[in-house]
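WARN  no MSA supplied for this record, continuing single-sequence
INFO  ligand: flavin-adenine dinucleotide
INFO  echoing inputs
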Amino acid sequence: MSERIQFSIPYDVAVESYVKENYPKVRDYRIRSESLDARKANQGRVPTVHYTLEVVYGQDEFPSTKEDFKTIGPLKTPPIIIGAGPAGLFCALRFAEYGVPTMIFERGTRAHERMKHISKYWRKGELDPDNNVCFGEGGAGLFSDGKLITRVKSPYVQYVMDKFVDFGAPAETAWLSNPHLGSNKIRQLIGKITGYLTDKGHTFHYNSRIEKIIVKENKAIGVELSDGQKFYSDHIILAAGHSASELYQHLKEINVDMKPKDFAVGVRVEHPRELIDRIQYGDYSEEGLGASRYRLSWENPKTFKGTYSFCMCPGGYVLSSGTDDFGIVVNGMSNYARNSRWSNSALVVSVKAGKDFQVDDVLGGLGFQNAIEKKAYEYSKEKASGREVPVQNLKDFLDNSLSGKLPKTSCPSGIFEQDLRQVLPPFISEHLSNALEMFNRRMKGFVTDKALLLAPETRTSAPVTITRDRETLVSTNIAGLYPCGEGAGHAGGITSAAVDGIKVAMSILQSR
Ligand SMILES: Cc1cc2nc3c(=O)[nH]c(=O)nc-3n(C[C@H](O)[C@H](O)[C@H](O)COP(=O)(O)OP(=O)(O)OC[C@H]3O[C@@H](n4cnc5c(N)ncnc54)[C@H](O)[C@@H]3O)c2cc1C
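INFO  complex generated
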């Protein structure tokens, strides 16, 4: 028998000594959740850490937390998974628990190879359409900051965390309220996951871009690669992420049910890390609390449009993360230690389907994103070499001016000064300006000439939902096709994409 206890203690008190002193009968404990509360630290309130512990007394032992899986063995045809991102990989991992091998098709290459291509893009502007920040083994998740926090409520969330720990993530990943792996750690894990799956009989096809879904009498029966090879299966899991624009075009051509989806567009804002830490932690900024985070949002009372921070990367880097050689897109990441000199976050404005972009074409949202990305690229080509990212001093953006004062940046692609109002649609710039003024009231010092805006942040989520049945998760009009993960509009972020992959695997397993 075990039981749970909860308490909050000052940040500089060790949990072990606190338990010893206050719960002397506890023989052993394991941490179930841990979260830092540094609210009002900038007003002198002592930061605290909230714990939930599972404890045992006397001779009692902890109950096992591992699920039991019954081996089913191979299905009639191995499921085909398109995309080796978190959704595709966790789908395969779940099948592996039941002894069901799959075939995984990934347009890009192995992680270590992929890194060389990404470097080439950042340093020389040579983009590989199949190996970049979004494409290649591990998906967009591989290269990301590795924040595993999710709003999704599912029992599979803990499974995902535990799996990451099994494959070598730090133990605290299983219990922190805000687990973060960092690009350096998550990259190592992905190789271990794919190695494990290969040992379990799953087949990986790298450098294998799926061009077509083969459909016969409204049923998906296979896939066709760009080199013409065909593979067949009763189950096609489409987990290609939110940047697979050619696949979206193909789905439209073969009339797969999709509907336009809202998303958000804006900029990355980058501050010196030390400045954000001081704003957030006040006198505690030197106390080793870790690079500080913030979350900001504001709804314009006239337009009811939201502007919010998103994917904040304390101690991180801003990246050029495009997938097309005619466009520029930015995103953010950090390493496990979160120790760069900068902290960045997306600041994005919600973009509504049918209001902010036309929906007579189901891919209207994709066109809206691409047009902004293209503009950024064209300015970059005109004013620099085409790989540099357009930026503006935050103060200049608000003053509608260009002062030539550009703070140092973490962005490895280089930057050039640009009036970002010429890159972004006017309604985005206007909402951003208003929101920045409001954010500065909440975080005094947020608006400063030490901060830089980098643009555009366009790929916040998929521009469509590939509709599916709520129960079976099968496409609403093509049997055998399972839209999955972020690209299908059913997840947003690493953990929720992984959870969706598991859900799809379970649905297929339960339907046999
Ligand atoms: C720089 C960056 C930082 C991020 N930071 C975070 C973070 O900190 N926390 C977080 O939760 N989320 C973060 N994200 C988002 C997160 O990475 C995604 O939400 C997540 O990876 C989505 O998972 P997915 O498996 O659905 O799709 P993806 O990860 O996009 O994977 C799709 C896979 O499909 C492959 N593919 C595409 N088209 C084809 C095709 N035609 N044939 C074969 N294969 C194909 C791609 O190469 C890719 O490997 C970040 C994203 C980026 C780009």
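The first helix runs from residue 15 to 22.
INFO  checksum written, moving to next record
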